[in-house]
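Readers of this paper often ask what the protein records in our data store actually look like. An entry from our holdings is shown next, in its original layout:
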Amino acid sequence: MYTLGIWDGHDSGTALIDDDKVIYAANEERFTKRKLEVKFPVNSINAALEYAKLNHSDVEEIAFTTTEISKTVERMLPHFKEQYYLFRRRKIEKPRFENLMHKRKYLVTQIGVLPFCNTISKSIVARQLRRMGFSDFKLNIVEHHTAHAATAAFTSGFPRALVITMDGLGDGLCGSVSVLENGRLERKISIGARDSIGIFFEQVTNILGMRELEDEGKVMAMACYSYPFTFEENRLKDFFKVVGTTITAKYGPLTQYDKLRNLSWQLPREQLAYMAQQLLENVLTKYVSNVIDRFNVYDVVFAGGIFANVKANMVVRNLEQLKHWYVFPHMGDGGIALGSALYTNYLKTGRTDFGFSAYLGNDYDQEQTEQVLRSDRSLSYQKENVTEQASHAAELINDGNYAMWFQGRMEYGPRALGNRSILSSSDSEEVKEKLNIHVKKREWFQPFAPSILEEDIANVVEYDGKGVDRFMTMGYMVKEKMRERTRSVMHIDGSARPHMVGEENKPYAEMLKKVRKLTGYGMVLNTSFNLHGFPIVMTPEDAIAIMKTTKTKYMFVDGIFITNKAGV
């Protein structure tokens, strides 16, 4: 039974599953080249069908999520959704009533699902699907946080687990707690939208001059540049209270926004970022600890945008009661198309355990790449087998170069995991600065992350064995003896966000093994293959365009080594 999951909101996308296997998943941004696209996912739907060699009539079940009043209105009037996308991403001039637009959003999105919302949303989505050629299908609605919960619960591999979701909000909630046990996923706690620490962090992001729903990671990174102080000295400490398994916000989102704006006037931005990050960590650790104690389940899985915060995840991981953890790699709303499909399939078949890999997007053969290269005299190329390519890349990296690395199927989610990556040495600050200034063009305070062979991880970071992180979702402290070797992949506080590499990606693991022969450690700097503010590349054409734009000299594309004659 084929089940198609779709999401037509922030970071829209598609996922296709067949019984107990995820066949394809990708987000619309990769096709339209607009980061965190909001349009109906026509391109990714077509790509999923093409990849699986299916006709529209082969898909029996289609699922979508989130029918709150604000989302329903956006489906009815897509122009409003587009305008807010351009406003939020600052692609238009600053509106005269900017604060009013933010407040209207906070007011409307709290309302949740009204009686007519499901009917209207379902009718609009069904009409769009029929226009694409779908006919005999059943259309299923999955509640927002149920979709988040399904992503974490059904891909974790844990037979029994606490399932915690937390984000800005969706369908009138900002979070939930469920228990996965005996093949059943059951909701135990719902957290109302008014008490959203996700909205709080969004507001801080916006007030610090960044883009909410996009730059929260920059707030996390910036926080490390503040002078430290205790939680008792934190002027935001009373904004949220955790009592048992209840989170309560002191203020509604409108009052909270005004208070944060007033406070920001008096504080350096690094200090406000530190306060927000410290508050988030305090709330999450108390809440997760209390939930574990209440339900006596010690393996915990997480989804929702809050859990993109790897520093907060690190503090939660260190809870003594927590035995094993898992964060779904596409934890934000971009992952809920898959969650919708997984949950719909679960209701039909009872399946709660899906083999999961992050490599779920498009791939391209050598001929497609060579077609592009033959017509471009500014580039030269040669073919290499897997072993030759791994050795060649390792040598270039060890000699102080960076290289673009494009292999196999595109990763699903916000992280490059060795198939759409830019790689360099883990200890060269010179190359790190070159990447930051000339290629990525990111803020100076954002750290890069390492890819590390699984067998080397305990030598590099303070590893506790609670979870193998294949997806860059967790922070760890770097061991003192390794801090010189990790200068380009370690944050100022000594933390890192490692990508632990095993045999799930053999070409990438082979390259890391060659690096280890040269340096003693299977470790490189790994950053996503994109320009700052744009999606990760999808096609060889995308990769070559960025190579030329950034004057990058070296690139490896699926067995082809490319040299840019104008590269520096």
About this structure: The longest strand covers residues 161-170. The CA atoms of residues 212 and 299 lie 31 Å apart.
